[in-house]
Amino acid sequence: MRRDQRRAMKTRLVDFINRIFPERQIHLRTHGRVSFTRFTQPVQIFMVVVLLLAGGWMTFSSITYLLNDAMLASKEIQITDSKQAYRTLLGQVSEYQKKFSKLSTNLEDSHDLMLGLVEKNASLRQSLTTVAKKLDLTQTQRTQIANAKENLKEKLSSIEIQVRDMSKQNFSLTDNLSTAEADLQKALAERNQSIYEGSRMHRRIKRLETRLADIDKSEELAIQRLTDSTTSYIKSMEKIVSIAGLDMKHLLKDYEPLADGQGGPFIAAEIDKNLPGKQLKDQLSNLDIYLGRWESLQSVMQKIPLSAPLDSFNITSSYGKRRDPINKRWAAHYGLDLGGPFNSSVYAPAPGVVSFAGWKGKYGKLIEIDHGAGLKTRYGHLNKILVKKGQAINFRDRIGLLGSTGRSTGAHLHYEVAFRGQPKNPMMFIKAGRNVFQE
Questions:
Q1: pLDDT for 298-353, tens place per residue?
Q2: Which of 94, 269, 347, 402 is most buried when burial is the number of CB atoms within 10 A of its CB?
């Protein structure tokens, strides 16, 4: 069962591809000789793949542009943070300089105080020597000298304690000074590193800006080339439609997109013409309009019968006013009589659906094909009908054989083209189709 299901799926896929990409031919007629160029199924698939790759490339370019914009914004934020950190470091360096100046002043004051204490200590020692010499004079003096000596010892001890405290304070100040110098060196190193990183980031931003400008330029050139080719195709198709005698507005009536409902008061807004990518966005918007027109034309051009229904023919009766071939009275002829060998193959000039197949009064055996977009073709006086009503017809499918059934004087094909119920000159469509093949 699984093998049968896979085979069925494969068969449906092949049928779908054959239906979407049937073999197409471009016919050229020169001096009565008809030649054709085949567009095989692989060639058509290749062209569709190329168009899809072009659309993917455009999408990739747009995403790359948006990502580069985000990266630039992120780098600007990093540069701003680096500048703020640099200013903070400068403030810390200034604070450390102030602390260093204050410590230097304290060291000088401590040094002066130590010198004074040393001098004072020498003076006290000299006083002690003098007092010791005078102890022999009197006991009273000795007692006074002893008391003075004790007082001097206490003062000396107090001075020694103060000297030790000043030494400790001096060592502490020296340590603080060393720490401040180390912090200052570290701050200077960080400042130099920040300056280096800022310079490197600035160079990188310059490179990114140059690269972004190159990308914008290449994308603008690509969009311009695509716009030019699209407008050229649109002009060619509009020329063909004009040659066929059709009104472009009525032809695209069912293919133009419906306008979205909008409204509200008008409030003028300022437009910044220097916004990044504005020109590219305008070009893309313009291209989108042309592509919409191109898609509408592409859809409707496949439905226009631009080729002749016979490979070889001669015109036996033109479109318009003529002498009736049977009663010789003036009459309106809303078709084109194409003479050719009996039982010549009659081909569909465009894809469509058979809306009528059978006998229809003076037309004899008649086929009518609805091609869509308001276009219909009729094939009268056939000898044999090879299709049936409701059958889907592809371009250049064999639909009948040329004959002389109905009101006819000989073998020929009565060929009519109608647009929205109004008859059109089939020869105009055949001429437009020749113009397509020549281009």
A1: 777 788 898 899 999 999 999 988 888 888 888 888 899 999 999 999 999 999 99
A2: 402
Q: Rounded CA gap, 95 and 187, in Å?
A: 11
d(CA 76, CA 256): 46
Second-level CATH architecture of 314-438: Distorted Sandwich (2.70)
Residue 409 is classified by DSSP as S
Rounded to two decimals, the pTM is 0.47
Rg (CA), the chain: 52
How many other C-beta atoms can be found within 10 angstroms of the C-beta atom of residue 2?
6
Domain ranges of the chain: 11-257+276-301, 314-438
Average pLDDT of the residues in 41-65? 83
Q: Sign of torsion, CA 250 253 259 263?
A: positive
Distance between start and end Cα atoms, the chain: 52
Q: Quickly list H helices, 244-344.
A: 248-251, 278-301
Q: Is the Cα dihedral 389, 390, 391, 397 positive or negative?
A: positive
Give the span between the Cα atoms of 173 and 92, in whole angstroms: 19
Tokens encoding 245: 């005698």
- Three-class secondary structure of residue 46 per DSSP: helix
Contacts of 173-181 spanning 24+ positions with Cβ under 8 A: 173/103, 173/106, 173/107, 173/110, 176/99, 176/103, 177/100, 177/103, 177/104, 177/107, 180/96, 180/99, 180/100, 180/103, 181/100
* C-alpha–C-alpha distance, residues 310 and 403, integer Å: 13
